Amino acid sequence: MNIYKKLCIVSLCLFVQPVIGMDFDPEITEVSLNNNNRAMLILLDDSESDDATDVDRRIGAIYNCFLSAFFQQAGPLIVSASILDNARPKEELSKVDILKLAARYQELEKKASMRNDAETKEFKNILRNIASFDKETAALWIIKKITPELYLLLPKRYLKEFGVAESDVEQFIAKGPLTTVEQELGLKVNHMQTVADIDEIKRPLPVPQVAQYFVDALYDNTKEDPSSIFVLKSEYKALKNSSSIPIWSIWIGGHGVKGIFVADLLISQFKSVLNFLEQGIRTKLLYYFTCFGAGVTNKALYEDVKNGIDRTYSFAIITQAITDTAIIGIAVRPVVENGHLNVKLFQHYRKFIDLVNDTGIIDYKVLADCFIGNLQISGVGSLLPQVKLPGLPWFSVIHGDRVCSIGTILAKTRTQPLNVETFCARQGKKAAPLGILLYADDLPFELIINPTTELGLPSTVISMIPGNAIHHLHKISSSVFKIEQIIGCFTKLEHLGAHKLFIIDEIEVKRGWFSTAKVQNIVVELTPQRNTVYYLQNGKLCKNMVQSTSDGDSAQYVKLLSLLKSSSEIFLSEAEISRVKADADVVFLKKMSSAEAYQVVVKLLDTMPNGMMLRVPKLKGISCPPRQECWMDFLAYLMNYDSLGAQKILWIDEVELYNQIDESMVSMKNIIIDVRDGNTTLFITSVAMGSMIKLNLKTGFGPIQEDYVPEYRIMLDYFNVHKQMPQRIKKGIVSTQDLLTPSAIANIRKVQEKKAQKIGEQRSKEQTTKYEQNRPWWWVW
Fold first, then answer.
1. Alpha-carbon span 685 to 709, nearest angstrom
2. In what order do the strands lie in the sheet with 282-289?
3. What is the CA radius of gyration of the chain?
4. Is the pTM above the cut of 0.90?
5. How far is CA 46 from CA 1, 126, 208, 727, 748, in A?
6. How confident is the model at residue 377 (pLDDT cuts 50, 70, 90)?
7. Each residue of 588-620: pLDDT tens digit?
């Protein structure tokens, strides 16, 4: 757990892959079996509080989402105690003060990124004093305690719509059978204590690192009553009340970190939630709203490495993300109108619940519009959701008519220029997509970008390959836009959690009737910290649209261009190999702390030529008593090393730790840092544990059964002879992208028709069973 937490750069925002390029009708989905539709909103977080070290975490995205749902009295709401505790007002203010604060809030809001830390704190605290979870607003809800860390909020308005008496819900039964109210609501409300005073709700101490308490309350098969929240399918069946089983639509939000956290849950914990929704209750939809909720995260959640096809579920799944990026937006804003204070809400939770509770077919576009606002203004980068339909292994962009997708099959088979306007045209109307989605890493044809979006700009180009990726585009041309506008297509995405590289051989634009302008060898580098552009114009290197560059820029430019070569094409000279070995031998002679060791190893990995394999006899480390946690940090940080497509392997025979009196002990052996295939994998033999361990950012860490050393010894021998690493043999696993042939796409509707037929048969069977159970006794005669 600590390793995960320390290697993450925690996302500071919530309003931060698909694996296909296709046109799909999102309105096709399963029809509800009956009118038992129910919906639930879940918000999990323990990181936002007054004692947060970062000012953006005092009152952050989760707080805003909670307020939006709370003020709308949208429906059942499960919330972390920390969120409720943080949402309470910290001081009493008069009406006049509140109006002044609202005006001040708007003033600070306009300053946006120009605010200093003090102003940011003020900005956050104004919102909490204007829009709060207090005794007056809480009076509109019945609040139930699930666990000390987790609470269920039920709007009294919602209960009235169901015809359920408040007193029946407030009743508490510590043990006993399910009540009629619980069967009606699908929630074990009577087995939860009613909260009479919201001051009882406290942030748990110590503060939970992740929301494991939610998973435990959701389902724990070691308890007599496995679920503390939902009435299970099995419980309805045991009561011979199958016709009343609710069909749930779940919206869940929380902070996310690429490939590690989804809505404040570890990937493994979120998988447990998915399994519960599949098996424990009847589910129609899961909608998760979290930073970095696509790309690597979806790959980690659904990829079946053994079969090469992502796992499917019987319910629809929506992620509010297009790729490995934060999602950014506004949920709540206090406004002063005609001398009165109003709270303006930008996320429509009540509408969401009404839509999913409707017995008709879900229109996913309308559903997604509850949370994305104006797509034309916000663009496709941070708020364009995707849906994974029941029974299908891939995600599709919901607003498919607003994007142009270029898949791997198209990239492999097309040689003629591709005009975005005509290629993505619909019903004879030229296309002006907001985004061009690249699922392929190499585009050997000319790409013509002329469409102008509603904002008067060209389409945003987005890498849809999960995680770090390199895209090679041979030529881009335009008769509408300038060179800087075309280059700008690639730099609109910010807050990326991955490292993306676009290498474009040539960009040509029309300057006038008879003249053109060209730039060559363009490199666009997108990182979590910054976006950088290099290109050659008239033989001169330019950086970020400015011609003046340094020697360091030139070196970085050459290095990035070289990454296009595969390891099988890279042959290193004896002199180059010897130089790197000699430098490494000098560096590793001295003793160093874990922090120094990390810097040394990273610098070595950065300076090693692409395609090299290096073995170092010993790393001399300084021990850090009483615990060796600092050397676990060393491994955790290395696991997060960004290779950006380079192929390198560093092998450290052993780590020997020295204490203050110069005694030493070997703590780790055969640390192999394998930097290939766009990610970093560490292998290590722990002397203390007596076991071999594998660490990887995508798959986590854990013991391995087989010895990893022989394989790398063979690779090293090969490298020493051939001066290059052996090309990794890829197994014949068919990817989801490769499955998307025209015939496969045509069969999607057949898949849905078959699903609908199965649902119809099940509904008919349930209706027949219900009729036979209720027919009069004399009918048998």
1. 10
2. 193-194, 141-147, 150-155, 77-80, 37-43, 247-253, 282-289, 316-319, 386-388, 396-397
3. 29
4. no
5. 16, 21, 7, 46, 41
6. low
7. 988 988 888 888 998 898 888 888 899 999 999
